[in-house]
Design a protein that fits this description.
By secondary structure, this protein is mostly beta strands. It has one domain: Methylamine Dehydrogenase, Chain H. The longest helix is centred in the C-terminal third of the chain and has 12 residues, at 324-335. It is globular and about 55 Å long. InterPro entries: TAT_signal, TAT_signal_bac_arc. This is Twin-arginine translocation signal domain-containing protein.
């Protein structure tokens, strides 16, 4: 790895698909800003957390009853193999496998109040040309999805506004060929977001990675963030905001956790990780950024281990508005049609604030981005989802459903709210009973 650093241990990434075809593309992206620009790596501050500043999940007390943390308020049985994503308290997006070869998958919208799922997209827009639906995200305002023709190596990104369960006219937002990886998706506020990455060995490999957006109901695509180099992980939907992980513009490899307001596209927080530390996921919550490593580093002090990290308390708010000549440079770049950059001084301010607070590590293999259900932090690690009271130093594992497969429960939610969604694919036959084969989606609220 660059800088003489070495990863001592890594674990395998697990992917699973729909009807034998991968339903999720693991990619990354970049913004209408580009990450902190610096001619000298030494000018860029990096997150520095001492080992004695980190509390781990091993220090927490297990609660006797999970119902003291969260309450099961609804559930739904969907087709086996369904994938679920949730980024607000009203709806969740569902990629529903079918029993036919065409279409392979449909898009459903799960109402979190009634636990009823409505199919809103039955066929790919380009089905007659060999396209299938591969990925989807949705909130109360709209839906964004990808379609691909895998025989010709072509993908397209579409979105549409929502009114209840009524889908508006699909809008073609972007398309690419074999030189570009299939984008990863996110939704926030009234916008759909997607990350566009060049293939490592394709003709576009020297191009910037892009995080783009479009307002639901329009085809007006805008670059929100440009990254010189590949983003570390997919963008994360955080309700009214989004998190991306571009590379800082330095000679070394530094990934910058970047929080953007969905409505304005402005960077509202940033934190730079130590050299060559690459998060597998990044989120946002009540105490700021969260990020996860699926390997162990031989450097980094308190943030060198496998697991999910986040501050125990919120860092002091830092203004990230460009100033003076740096602001003028950003405006000049915009005039040239280039993506402006986030000045290093501002990224440094955010990084310093995060270095000054105590941290928490959930010491388990990370699988999904954490979510907040009221004041309870929900994290999926190892075999199940856990509800954590950071202030009270206690936790409660959520119960597993009998017959859930090797993946057990997955956390579908990635936002802060008063509802959280988990799902598991169940396949078992009770003694003397009928086979149970379905995707069980469960909806949780904070205990009163």
């Amino acid at each position: 790895m660059p800088g003489g650093h070495e990863v001592l241990l890594t674990r395998r990434h697990f992917l699973y698909g729909v009807a034998g075809v991968a339903a999720v593309a693991v990619v990354g992206g970049g913004a209408a800003w580009a990450a902190g620009k610096s001619d000298d790596d030494d000018a860029l501050k990096r997150l520095k957390v001492p080992e004695d500043a980190v509390t781990t999940s091993n220090d927490l007390e297990e609660m006797e009853n999970y119902e003291d943390a969260v309450t099961l308020v609804g559930s739904a049985k969907l087709p086996f193999g369904t994938l679920v994503w949730c980024s607000d308290d009203a709806v969740a997006a569902c990629l529903l496998p079918t029993e036919s070869a065409k279409p392979l998958a449909e898009v459903g919208l799960l109402d979190l109040a009634s636990a009823e799922c409505t199919t809103i997209i039955e066929h790919a827009v380009g089905e007659d040309k060999g396209f299938e639906i591969y990925d989807v995200r949705a909130n109360s305002a709209g839906v964004i999805w990808t379609e691909a023709d895998i025989l010709d190596n072509i993908w397209r990104v579409y979105s549409a506004a929502l009114s209840g369960t009524t889908l508006g006219e699909p809008q073609l937002l972007d398309e690419g060929d074999v030189n570009w990886e299939m984008p990863t998706l996110a939704v926030a506020g009234g916008f759909g977001f997607w990350q566009r990455l060049p293939q490592l060995e394709g003709n576009a490999r020297v191009e910037d990675s892009l995080l783009k957006r479009a307002a639901f109901g329009t085809a007006d695509a805008q670059v929100v963030y440009a990254s010189q180099g590949r983003m570390a992980c997919p963008p994360t939907s955080c309700g009214e905001s989004i998190v991306a992980t571009p590379r800082a513009r330095t000679s070394g490899t530094y990934y910058q956790l970047t929080h953007l307001d969905a409505a304005t596209g402005e960077v509202t927080d940033a934190c730079v990780l130590p050299s060559s530390m690459k998060p597998m996921e990044c989120g946002w919550g009540k105490t700021g950024f969260s990020f996860a490593f699926d390997g162990i580093y031989s450097y980094g002090e308190g943030i060198a281990n496998l697991g999910t990290y986040l501050p125990l308390e919120s860092p002091e708010a830092v203004s990230l508005t460009a100033v003076n000549e740096e602001e003028a440079q950003a405006e000049e770049n915009e005039v040239k049609g280039e993506a402006p950059y986030l000045p290093a001084a501002n990224a440094n301010a955010g990084t310093a604030a995060y270095s000054d607070v105590p941290w928490f590590r959930f010491a388990a293999n990370p699988y999904t981005v954490p979510s907040w259900c009221g004041n309870w932090l929900l994290i999926r690690g190892n075999t199940q989802v856990v509800a954590i009271d950071l202030a009270g130093y206690r936790y409660a594992p959520l119960p597993l459903e009998e017959g859930s497969n090797d993946y057990n429960d997955y956390l579908a939610s990635t936002h802060m709210g008063n509802r959280a969604v988990t799902f598991s694919n169940v396949d078992y036959t009770p003694i003397g009973g009928e086979q149970q084969k379905h995707c069980l989606v469960r909806i949780w609220e904070p205990a009163s």
